[in-house]
User: Which sequence fits this backbone?
């Protein structure tokens, strides 16, 4: 399938699912600080892998994924109503921890650069 079409469908799914999570899913397990990071749709449009980022501890992340998995039917039905597709893809939610990993790496870089500045300051004096 055309990659541009797959990208447009992915973006439309991302928009619809983000709206559903923020406005219509009432499950208390779903953290209000949940965002859709990325959506990957298979070439045959049979599956949509939705990558979710959750602000909170490990328990909040697991609860959010559980709540979203329980709401799969509702989300898929609403996607079918809002997006004009012949076949609505099956949804798979995945926890995306790339933001936390990026923050951790940034913190490590800051520590190393601070140590280098201290060493250079000590050597120059």
Assistant:
């Amino acid at each position: 399938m055309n990659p541009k079409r797959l990208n447009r469908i992915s973006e439309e799914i991302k928009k619809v699912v983000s709206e559903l999570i923020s406005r219509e899913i009432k499950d208390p397990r779903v953290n209000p600080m949940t965002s859709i990071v990325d959506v990957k749709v298979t070439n045959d449009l049979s599956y949509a892998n939705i990558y979710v980022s959750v602000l909170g501890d490990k328990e909040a992340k697991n609860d959010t994924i559980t709540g979203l998995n329980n709401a799969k039917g509702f989300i898929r039905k609403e996607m079918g109503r809002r997006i004009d597709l012949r076949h609505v893809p099956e949804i798979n939610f995945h926890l995306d921890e790339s933001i936390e990993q990026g923050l951790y790496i940034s913190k490590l870089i800051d520590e190393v650069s601070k140590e280098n500045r201290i060493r250079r300051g000590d050597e120059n004096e």
Remarks:
- The radius of gyration is 20 Å.
